[in-house]
Amino acid sequence: MTALLSVTDAHVAYGKVEAVRSVSLEVGTNEIVTIVGANGAGKTTLLSAIMGILPLKGRVAFAGQDLARLDIEDRVAMGLGLVPEHRELFVTMNVEDNLELGAFRIERSKAKASMERVYALFPRLKERRKQLAGTLSGGEQQMLAMGRALMGEPKLLMLDEPSLGLAPIIVADIFRIVTELRASGVSVLLVEQNAQAALKIADHAYVMELGEFVLSGKASDIAANERVAASYLGFQHEGESVI
Amino acid sequence: MNTTIMLFLVQDGITNGAIYALLGLALVLVFAVTRVILIPQGEFVTYGALTYASLAAGQMPGTAKLALALGIGAFAFDLFVARKALHARLVVRSLITNIVLPAIVLALTVYFASQKPPVAVCIALSLVIVAMIGLYLYRIAFQPLAHTSVLVLLIASVGVHLALQGLGLLFFGAEGQRGPAVLSGAFTAGALRFTGQSITVYAITIAFIVGLWLFFGLTLYGKALRATAVNRLGARLAGIRTTLSGQIAFLLASVIGALSGIMIVPITTLYYDSGFLIGLKGFVAAIIGGLVSYPLTAVAALVVGIVEAFSSFYASNYKEVIVFMLLIPVLLLRSLAAPAVEEEKD
Fold it and tell me: Which regions of chain B are under pLDDT 50?
């Protein structure tokens, strides 16, 4: 079976500085894949480049098609969605308008059903549907950003630090919803600093350091890896040295 | 001062202010969506007005040919950009919007120009011609620069303004023209006399503002335009093409410009270069609105119109100076009120 998203030997540079070096990754259908790593490892840069926001050297294929010549908007229409770290909501517009615009590339007749699905997933958004996006709390804004991306009926949703700056109870909620997405047939590529939570729900994981993948494997194996445990999970196994 | 004169000046000011309001709104719209400060807005006004006046006088306006020429340019740009992945569908669509459409309009213009068409036909043709010019200009001059800074876009904008003004002289000559009134007749209410033309100006301005309000508030494309203005990256991530939003904004701006011109040309004689000053007054209103606020821009436009009317009565030599001086206190206040200089992000 071919992967839904496959990135081969990707390089992303800001001018002369290479922020991502020779990275390859795959996301299959119905799979949650996570990229964990410290701040500045290049995770956000990689997601932006896959989405087409930054130029990428290497090969990115989605659903069997090479993305090289496609704009962000075409990638969205193909079923690739990104919820960026800063959410990029339409802050002066209400929740419902934000969601409606998420379905810009979807047939009008389907958009209505899409919105009901998003409201079922995030009942909070339904309560606030006439409220301006800029006046929502951080957690609600994250939900709205995810909801807006889901309105476009993505096959693969890329989430960039969805838990950043949110209360633990809301983080738990968001991670629960990510697993629900997988159950409903949406694959997820999750970038997280909260490695512990991410590894718990993911099927497959990559560990990124200074622009390169240093480890990859089944999420449960990665979670059990001593080095990962020491660097990212915030604890050390008793009596073992780090690296 | 005499009340009758005062009322008359206010009325005159409101008529002009209504036009400035439309132009100001178009400027705010284009800037919000594309970051282009649309200096050629004034040329859309003169092109609309003089195309209308020429057609009504039974002359062939050169703008129809310009539309076709620009369309061919836009088609060439489309082909060049898509050269590595040419789809038949893309080529056909580009061919229809950029070449077939202006060719048909040109043919219609040639046909009608020879036989002094009715006012409605003149208006429709003028609007379509200027709308196409606006659309193709965006494709040729601004879309390729969409990712650059506001300054680069402004320089392109000045260039387009100069080019269009020169072409205006070529098409319409140095003589001023007047067009026939859209609505003739007049009635008096007390001391005031309302001409059919001024009523038309009020009605069209109000209709356009209500129409824009409905468009932005209720339709998906209107919302998409607002979304692009609020957050360009967010809009792209929702699948909204920046170029589509830019095209709609330019289309609206050129139609608004042409319509304003058609409304003024029966009242005032317009020359090939009159549009610049008219557009600039819309710009003053837009600046007072901070280039973001639509309601503030509309109100400011009325103030500009009234100030202009009064200053042309009391100090007609200084009328333009007084109007543009309005900017200075506003800019001073704005710079004092602004907490710090915001660096441009993009």
Answer: 344-346
3-state secondary structure chain B: CCHHHHHHHHHHHHHHHHHHHHHHHHHHHHHHHHCCCCCCHHHHHHHHHHHHHHHHCCCCCCHHHHHHHHHHHHHHHHHHHCCCCCCHHHHHHHHHHHHHHHHHHHHHHHHHHCCCCCHHHHHHHHHHHHHHHHHHHHHHHHHHHCCCCHHHHHHHHHHHHHHHHHHHHHHHCCCCECCCCCCCCEEEECCEEEEHHHHHHHHHHHHHHHHHHHHHHHCHHHHHHHHHHHCHHHHHHCCCCHHHHHHHHHHHHHHHHHHHHHHHCCCCCECCCHHHHHHHHHHHHHHHCCCCCHHHHHHHHHHHHHHHHHHHHHCHHHHHHHHHHCHHHHHHHHHHHCCCCCCCCC
C-alpha span between B109 and B107 (Å, rounded): 5
Query: Closest Cα partner for B194 from B20, B4, B15, B3?
Result: B15
Contact B84 A90 (CB under 8 A): no
Decide if B178 contacts B53 (C-beta within 8 A).
yes
* From A92, A100, A149, residue closest to B230, measured CB to CB: A92
The pTM for the full model equals: 0.86
Per-residue pLDDT at A235: 52
| Percentage with pLDDT > 90 across chain A | 67
Contact at CB, B238 and A92, closer than 8 angstroms: no
Q: Is it the case that residue A238 has pLDDT exceeding 50?
A: no
Strand duo A5-14 + A32-37: pairing? unpaired
- Looking at residue B346, what is its pLDDT? 47
Say yes or no to pLDDT of A237 above 90.
no
ipTM of the complex: 0.90
What does the pLDDT average to over A217-242?
70
Q: Quick check: B223 and A149 CB within 8 A?
A: no
Minimum Cα–Cα distance from B231: chain A residue:
A90
Q: Which residue has the higher pLDDT, A239 or B199?
A: B199
* CB pair distance less than 8 Å for B231 and A101: no
